[in-house]
Specification:
single chain, mainly alpha, 6 helices
Length: 135
Amino acid sequence: MNLIPFYSIKEYIFGGSATLKKFAFSNVVGNIVIFIPLGTYLSLFKKDKRVIINLLFIFFVSLFVEIIQGLLGIGTSDIDDIILNCLGGWIGILGYKFLAFAMRDEKKVCTVITLLSAAGLPVILYLLFMVRLRL
């Protein structure tokens, strides 16, 4: 369990092993990417679209996941994972805000997000599978 912010990320960056760098990349990117849809869908489906409220929800979901990981011994609990998950959620929120600003029509935004989700999910799953195979 790591409670020191950015400790794991520093270890990944300054670690010398090529295997550690591959793991670090997949861990950092994976923790960001996995929460982008949550930020997007929260903004899309919630009536209260304030960024801070959605970020707090993302924080608590991520915290809950890390607590469960620690209690069940599945993986490791790490404050850096919570930070990266919140960053991913924030990227999702910003993506939604950008689409809403650019399109100015909630139905069009919903359609675009649905199409991106349908096209993006297989791509993300493929990339995650390929990263897992390379380790």
